[in-house]
Amino acid sequence: MHKLCSLFRQPSPVLLFCLQAAIAIGLFSLLCWVTIRHTVGEIDEHLFLKVTQIQHLPPDEIPARIAMDTSDDPENKRPYGYFSPRGEHIVGAFETLPSKVDGKPFNLIATLGHQAGDVQRHYRGVVVRLPSGGILVTARSTDGEGHFDKVLLLIAGGSLVFVLVIGMVSGTLVNAAAARRLRDVRRATQQIASGRLDHRLPLSGSGDDIDNITAVVNSMLDEVERLIRDIQGICAGIAHEVRTPMTRMRGTLETTRRRTMSVTDYEQVIDTALQQSDIVMTRFSALLRIAQIGEAAVLARKSPLNLQDVLNDVIDFYEAAAEERSLTLELLPCVPAIVNGEADLLFSAFGNLIENALKFTPPGGAITVMLHQRDGKVTVEVRDTGPGIPVAERDLVFLPFYRAKHQAGTTTTGSGIGLSLVAAIARLHNANVSIREGGPRCCVAVVFESGMHIHPAGASREEVDCKR
């Protein structure tokens, strides 16, 4: 019983074909049976109509009527027979009284007539005892209907065979194509499992369910490859970032152990070691911050919020720092734009962008924040008058611990995690972060894929467009 249930839960192609064949045979058989029964019903109705017509005639007129109908039917396609109450033949093509006299239609084979060449015919007839006592036999030839039934069965059988052959051939071809695609998928999966993370499952281009599932799996593999590469980059970055402060701290401690130093010198060494350990802890805290961004608790806190309010808070927070560096920090006037997000995370992301701009913009420069919405997308841009980022490095700077080459030899401090944090927060909010063309300047754009635009009363065209 268990095997039978398993068979129907996971039917094989052969079982499915057998079921389809059985259904097709059943439908053809039902069609033939209904057609034949309909034909027989029409013949029976005709026979009872003739019996009714004869019954309504006076008894002395019945023989003459039957004789006239018999003479009008030389081929005996609708023969009659009239017999006395004792079964003696009186008139009609039937000279022998059939054994059934129960008024129910039946099939019979008879040879009527006395001419050479008369052949046996198949009839559908009925024998009825009339009120006058006489016995009436009336029949109708079914040779034509029999021929039609044979042709119908031949056509139905041929059609059935044709359908089964077409179904078998089509099923074989479809099964072979599906098996070939599955083999390709299996080979691609084996290559991916062997370490070729850049390999993808093949698409047939038909757009069917298998292609849709394959596309989803390929998207998942793209994300897995990106995550693994990020992990590799993070590991390399951790090794690089942690090695330098740890080497300095170890060198300082070894030097201290070999020399005789005063209490003040020991305190300076300890302070230096603490500073280096703080640098290491800062790196790991930033990594932990990135790891915690995608947690379910963060996702649960997302709600509709006004990006203009978030940006105003960020500007207010960093305005004093900008004044200390003799920089201009402003948010261009724009209408509110609503997105679904988490306010603290977005504040952190935009704050990191402004912190970077504050670090690399020379005194007297300007930092401009823009908010606009076009084609259903909300865009936040942070522009500064700093040195900018080379085109070749605009994707790399979003990797953890990566530092642009123009930072080499500068005294600018940082963990190298800021833009990685911005990218992680952007992904959480279904947004993309990129560095756009700005000539010698730097322009970082965060584009949210969907948002709800609000037009406050009195907003000007310039405020709505926020054009550069």
Automatic annotation (TrEMBL):
<keyword id="KW-0812">Transmembrane</keyword>
<dbReference type="InterPro" id="IPR005467">
    <property type="entry name" value="His_kinase_dom"/>
</dbReference>
<dbReference type="InterPro" id="IPR050428">
    <property type="entry name" value="TCS_sensor_his_kinase"/>
</dbReference>
<dbReference type="Pfam" id="PF00672">
    <property type="entry name" value="HAMP"/>
</dbReference>
<dbReference type="InterPro" id="IPR003661">
    <property type="entry name" value="HisK_dim/P_dom"/>
</dbReference>
<dbReference type="GO" id="GO:0000155">
    <property type="term" value="F:phosphorelay sensor kinase activity"/>
</dbReference>
<dbReference type="InterPro" id="IPR003660">
    <property type="entry name" value="HAMP_dom"/>
</dbReference>
<dbReference type="InterPro" id="IPR036097">
    <property type="entry name" value="HisK_dim/P_sf"/>
</dbReference>
<protein>
    <recommendedName>
        <fullName>histidine kinase</fullName>
        <ecNumber>2.7.13.3</ecNumber>
    </recommendedName>
</protein>
<keyword id="KW-0902">Two-component regulatory system</keyword>
<dbReference type="InterPro" id="IPR003594">
    <property type="entry name" value="HATPase_dom"/>
</dbReference>
<keyword id="KW-0418">Kinase</keyword>
<dbReference type="InterPro" id="IPR036890">
    <property type="entry name" value="HATPase_C_sf"/>
</dbReference>
<dbReference type="Pfam" id="PF02518">
    <property type="entry name" value="HATPase_c"/>
</dbReference>
<dbReference type="Pfam" id="PF00512">
    <property type="entry name" value="HisKA"/>
</dbReference>
<feature type="domain" description="HAMP">
    <location>
        <begin position="176"/>
        <end position="229"/>
    </location>
</feature>
<keyword id="KW-0597">Phosphoprotein</keyword>
<feature type="domain" description="Histidine kinase">
    <location>
        <begin position="237"/>
        <end position="435"/>
    </location>
</feature>
<keyword id="KW-0472">Membrane</keyword>
<dbReference type="GO" id="GO:0005886">
    <property type="term" value="C:plasma membrane"/>
</dbReference>
<feature type="transmembrane region" description="Helical">
    <location>
        <begin position="151"/>
        <end position="178"/>
    </location>
</feature>
<keyword id="KW-1133">Transmembrane helix</keyword>
<feature type="transmembrane region" description="Helical">
    <location>
        <begin position="12"/>
        <end position="36"/>
    </location>
</feature>
<keyword id="KW-0808">Transferase</keyword>
<dbReference type="InterPro" id="IPR004358">
    <property type="entry name" value="Sig_transdc_His_kin-like_C"/>
</dbReference>
